[in-house]
Amino acid sequence: MKKLKVSHFGQLRDAEVAFGDLTVLVGPQATGKSIFMQLVKLLIDMSSIKAEFSRFSIGWGEDVGHFLDLYFGEGMSKLYDSKRTIIVPDGKKLSIESLLRRHAAKAHGNDEVFLIPAQRVLSLREGLTRPFTDYRSGDPFAVREFSERLHRLVQMEFSKKDELFPVSNKLKKQYRDLIAEHIFGDFGLKTDPERFEKRMVLQNASGTSSLPYLVWSAGQREFVPLLLGFYWLMTPGAVSRRDMLKYVLIEEPEMGLHPNAISVVMLLVLELLNRGYKVCLSTHSPHVLDIVWGIQTIRKFGGGADDVLNIFGASRNPGMRQVANTALKSRMAVAYFTREGRTIDITNLDPSAETAAEAGWGGLTEFSGRVSEIVSGVVANHS
């Protein structure tokens, strides 16, 4: 999918996004970014979504409204109006009804899109992963599916291992070192068996102290499901991508994290680009756009891989230089979702742009700019 236009779908009155290799969605709360990302997955993965519902014996009786409540969440069928809603992926208009009829359920595991939802912390209950069936039928599909993937990862792929971080065959040493420095400190992520299930704890290097889930920092609780999501995507060995997956959608990767930790997450996002994934993320963090702007500006003025790595304080080895070079070659796009339900392309992130949306990076630099202006005025008046 190169472009998606959506009209009269929930908060989205006239939204259009042209996707890059990395696409960033910004804008105030409740402007439709999450709905937009879930719709992208629905359009691409309808067959596997239907298969997943079928696998757990969940039906909707051929009722479009019931299906939308199952997929987007209870009460969300009101997003869609069969007479007014317009959905146009890559210039081809379609309806949810036709999409449902057209796509027969295929075997699960044929997903092309992996969506990491904003509610990812729900995928862990006191350190235990939660399967698809642990949720109510009215809970959003994106949360249930993400949770199921993590459950399978921890309970099956890591079934013979107690250590979840650091793990040498899951992430490059550079990433592991940065995660340890900025997120976990002197602790590693382990599993302790409880009633035949693996409960996650943080444990110090000597093994003398373990911290249960409820005493982790808010940032650690937010980051662990995100880390496991990266594990799911970053297959070890010669295969760079998992199965048929092509697209990764991440909602608010910065949640609960210190700016240095956000930088680590964005470096992992660049690793996804290097592995051939297309990535789309939503954010409320100016730090994320600082990185996008920095990479674009370095490219514009002839900078190189080492300059990109300096942004992250990352070592300059061949593997990391390859990641940085891929970032410099990648097409980046930034879309601003307005309160009026429209979108504005602010990809250039030009602070001197005539439009306030682009100059203020979708409102993310507006407050700091206002503070700077006020303080500068007070200092000038004092002197």
Question: What's a quick, concise take on this entry?
Answer:
This protein is of the alpha/beta class. It has helices spanning 33-55, 64-72, 96-102, 141-157, 173-184, 218-233, 259-274, 286-300, 305-312, 318-329, 356-359, 366-382, and strands at 3-7, 15-18, 22-26, 86-89, 113-116, 124-125, 128-129, 163-165, 187-194, 197-204, 210-211, 247-251, 278-282, 332-337, 343-345.
Structural class: alpha/beta
Enter the CATH topology name of the largest domain: Rossmann fold
Q: What is the correct CATH architecture of the largest domain?
A: 3-Layer(aba) Sandwich
Determine the mean pLDDT: 92
How would you characterize the overall build of this protein?
- By secondary structure, this protein is an alpha/beta fold.
- It has twelve helices and 15 strands.
- The protein has helices at 33-55, 64-72, 96-102, 141-157, 173-184, 218-233, 259-274, 286-300, 305-312, 318-329, 356-359, 366-382, and strands at residues 3-7, 15-18, 22-26, 86-89, 113-116, 124-125, 128-129, 163-165, 187-194, 197-204, 210-211, 247-251, 278-282, 332-337, 343-345.
- It has a six-stranded mixed β-sheet with strand order 5-12-13-3-14-15, with helices on both faces.
- Helix 7 (259-274) links the parallel strand 12 and strand 13 (278-282).
- It is globular.
- The termini are far apart.
- The model has no long low-confidence stretch (mean pLDDT 92).
